[in-house]
Queue: 2 jobs
Job 1
Amino acid sequence: MIYKVISKPEFRRFIDALVKANNSFGPRLADRTADGKPVYRFMPVSSVDEIDFDYTATASSAKHFFLPFSEELSRFRFHGSDWEQHSAYEADPVVLIGLRACDISALNILDDVLLNGNYPSPYYLAKRKNTFVIGLDHLPLPDCFCKSLAHHTVSTGFNLFCSDIGEKYYLSINSSKAFTYLKEFQTEDPSYEDNCLLTERRKLISDSFKTEIDVTSLPSILDIEFDSPVWEKWGSKCLNCGTCAMVCPTCYCYSLEERFDIDLKGASRNRKLYSCNLVDFAVVAGGHNFRPKNGDRLKYRYYHQHRGFAENDNQQICVGCNRCGRACLADINPKDVINDLRMEKDSCMICVSQSPGRI
Amino acid sequence: MHDMRFTIPRQDMNREAFASSVPDFNRKSEIMKTDTGYKCRITNIISLTEQEKLFQLRIADPQERRIFRFKPGQFLMLELPGYGDVPISISSASSNHEFIELCIRKAGHVTSALFRTEPGMHVAIRGPFGSSFPMDEMTGHHVLLVAGGLGIAPLRAPLFWINEHRDRFRDVHLLYGAKEPSQLLFSYQFEEWKTISHIRLHTIVEHSGAEWKGSTGMITELFRDITIDAKNTYAIVCGPPVMFKFVCSHLDRFGIPMNRMFVSLERRMHCGMGKCCRCMVGSTFTCIDGPVFDYWSVMNLKEAI
Amino acid sequence: MKNPVYTFEKLKFASFEFTCCEGCQLQLANREASLAEFFSLLDVRTFREISSEKHDDYDVAFVEGSISRSDEIERLLAIRRQAKTLVAFGTCACFGGVNSLKNRYPVEECIAEVYDGLPVESLPVRKISDIVKVDFSIPGCPVAKKEVEWIVVNLVTGSLATLPKYPVCVECKEQLNTCLFDLGEICLGPITRAGCDAVCTTGKTPCLGCRGPADDINFPAFLELVEKRGLSRRDLKEKLGFYNAFEAYPCP
């Protein structure tokens, strides 16, 4: 990692040059809600002026740049009793500007799952390697809880990370590519003062969190509370719409589907991101549904997010961006569900302490 | 202005760095084929019953054939291009490097289409995936194999293994139950198993006609006919979930330790690689942590049975 | 070598219309890019919109429209007798569709209003499955040609043909759309079956549920959502009733 500082006007010139030379995406105002709140989205940008550097958070994550909602994995061409299979992984270079620390942490988690296991995904790898990621720090929204999961800062997984220290950006340069491009622009080594400003900025961010979730020993609590009535309570609110998983930066579950071409001379094998909240996620051949109830499916999503599975060493995969909470039409959010789960036990603790053992 | 100096070059896709942790089934530096299958020629199809056929496959590419290795208990994803893929446990000997045998029941649309195939046609396989029966650990012990219905299919691989290393094992019992006599699969191999492999075979059917001379009833009734040296026995149980629940609790009562009973769980695997999460049971992947589990692990799995 | 798995026979196909706008059948003749391939899957025996030829030896019948006259019932029964596979095609056939709005008024009133008192027979509108057994439904107003192509391909190849079981929200989120509830609208997306690629909501038009309810929807939670957002119950009722697709979910 190399650290530099760059003045904001010079930074804009740098981004403009990058954006003009590459297929680039950045945060832009997409809509305003009925009550006037801005809605941001990662959209194509062709000049620096189109990028909203002061955006809060995008409604949907940047996951789909790396893990498309649907993707053709493989193609077959039939001839006679034989066929040929062709799989293509190539990805075109993309510049992605303005990812938050939590978004980049999410990519690091996806790296763990999709690249570092026994079966690395070439499709994901191609996109990950060909995406130039520029991070941008920000002050948390009132409902962000990434700090609880230690994802409010990030030290790897990006090409360039920019911290706003007032007149300048403090740059963490994490790739030779970024370093080479920046050589063309006026940057300076950070001064003592710049370092102080960065520390202050980090402290400000860290102190600005208003939402906190106690995630300590959550994996064990989730295991113990497998049959908790909390799941049914929240499950009864759930619309089964899958929105949470779609906007989530780390939900990666999918289904595979094979389709004949309309001319019947070939077929394709496709992956479609799926959500464990969708009704038929756990349906097996013969039609049996292993998770028939809303609560079962909701619970399963929390298991995956907060207990973690073997593929990434049983680590939580939630980064605390609360996109699922914001997008949920039924007002289900991690903070309330997890607190409820803890409360359940905490209120039980009262009876335990009053049990005959004490007398 | 398009300034070429800032155009990001296309990257090479170097998979080597990420392929280092590929499980080593004698394949060493080979990169696991997970996205593109091994093309296989169907060399033979044997009708076992109306609903079950045994497919014999041969990997088309000689080099790929050389590197394809599996362990008894593992499964693969069998793909009929255009129709989709299904998880099938491997029924042939792990020492057989020329052919792969898969016992397939006609259940869904993919298997129905597979039943329309003929020798000479091509299918694709991905894998092998999943855990296997601990054949080495079982060395020096008695072995009790219990199969219900199609459960005999995954048991064929360990049976071949035992046959090839017969001197390493003490008594080997195979208890095999089916609905009707006609549904006992591989009956043409029974004699071979008994005489060549010295396996004590006990069969039972739920419903039988006059011509059936064997036992009738549930598979657990066969336990009355055998004596088990529980301290020195390993058990492998394959069949429908209800069956292994009953069988395993029986074996538990005999005193076989739970971590010496092995079952093969079935879920609808999609990817086989622990990525798609479709076959999750509790927080366990059937496709990479399983399909072979010891009974102790299964007991502790939420939603398992 | 002839390949028994990849050699297919054309479907002996017929298409019929009942009370409808024939817009769904028109969709079959749309999407020029794949039109030739699409029709090479079919041996068209009867299809008034594209051909004047008429034969009764079809196996697969696509039926568009709802039933609102007694002679239509006769015709439909005859089609059912001939067809091995009968596909209800379009929202009118699957749910009654817009035509069902008529059922809210006395039949005489409708006849007087529309036909100015001419002696016209008109029954309350019914969906196809109210009269005969339906083997497969392809909802949509109009149907999505892409989905029809896929289902026809699956009928030809003997693959599994299913509609998505999840709601429109999934596809809407794939398009990265801003939720219409956040824009202050009532949208039936959370309870309507996907498969349309969220074409309406992507155009910022709330979903009216032309594809009917998704599997296992949580209707009480949906009512609560509309309530909580302070949106009009009347507007909701109107949207739910528009295509008659949510008959099974009465809104209090």
Job 2
Amino acid sequence: MDKQEYAEYIKRITPKSKIWNSIIRAFVVGGLICLLGEGLGALYKMWLPNYDQAQIGSLVSCTLILLASILTGIGVYDKIGYFSGGGSIVPITGFSNSITSAAMEFRKEGIIFGTCANMFKIAGPVIVVGVAVAMLCGLGYFIVGLFL
Amino acid sequence: MSTIIFNHQPRIVGWYSVAGKKESQGPLGETFSRIVEDEYFGGKTHEVAERRLFVTAIQGAIQVAGIQPDLVFAGDLLNQIVSSSFAMRDIGLPYVGIYGACSTMALSLINAAAYVDAGLVQSAVAAAGSHFATAERQYRTPLEFGNQRPPSSQWTVTGAGATVLSASKESKIAVTCATIGRVVDFGIKDVNNMGACMAPAAADTLERHFANTHTQPADYDAIFSGDLGQIGEEALRDLLKERGYDLGQKYYDCGKLIYAEEQKVDMGGSGCGCSAVTLNGFILDKFKRGDYHKVLFMATGALLSPTTCFQGESIPGVANAVVIEEVTE
């Protein structure tokens, strides 16, 4: 076998992720997290009738972030993640998990050089890409606006 | 290209293995000298725990051997091989740190055997070990990060093993020859498929070993590879078949032996500790009971670092093989 044949051979014998299984689990768990968000939104609306939709949305996000962070801290979120994959990574709770887990992992190296230096290790690239894409979209929107 | 023959046949006079809780629940659980259920081993960090595994294994092996060794060869996976070096603060013996990734157990054993065989020292210790949590931190993501492991991934063994070699003839188990591996790279870049990265190196070492020693797989009671896992094992069998060697039924991979299927380790175990605890438990115990008379033990390593992976380099492999044999005199 040469290198190319070996690469093809390895591709053939390597087990694949069970894609339908993963999709269904991600759909169910991701959906449940969103349902929880909707439920929280309805509750906050009932308790705080003077708040507008944007304020309610922020409260819901904060609650979900806090919940995911606590679940990470007590060692539950990684088990949810193992089961559901993208279903619990993509929602805002996954973002919270990525920051909390990194903060915990590097706590042993101290607050500044451990936790602070490393807590955005996983979430950092997501934020950078998010900001960059938002800027590009904004620029596009601005240019299109000039001609309309 | 040659295989080293140890004419004075250094003897294995003591061995000891210490493993974690998950390993104790696997099929080899009974064969470990000591089980440590606490993943921190009473320490503050997992890194401290890994050092304690080394201290426990080396002191245990020395105690079993009942002699004071002259030299220790040891290595691990952490940057600057801190686990073995720091463990030596407590051992207090002259120390040679070595790095062979997960092939370290065989590499340290070969080096110890060479020093004893040449008469440079009377006795020497060979040791290797790893810890799941420290390896995850160095090579992958935080422990509590909720991601899924790809089906081709392997699980780093928490454990350490140590072997004491001596020039005295009081034991019948000897290290008789060894083939040191060439670094082989077949261009695989997938960090989650270590078996595929290491199999070509394993095939190269075994092919050279069989040719140099004029032996066939059937001449051994058993042949062990370190941590190829399911994919690597299959690839090694096929690569060797292509070169005219059939490994047959007596070939095992330590990575596949150490965990049961329901333990969710995907392709099997990995890490320096995988082959170290299997050798210093299961394999040498079989010699003691007389089940084995001649074994080819080959530990396999993937020579990557997180930096090389991010820079897009492929992952080179290495495999070191050593023959452990019952000798008459």
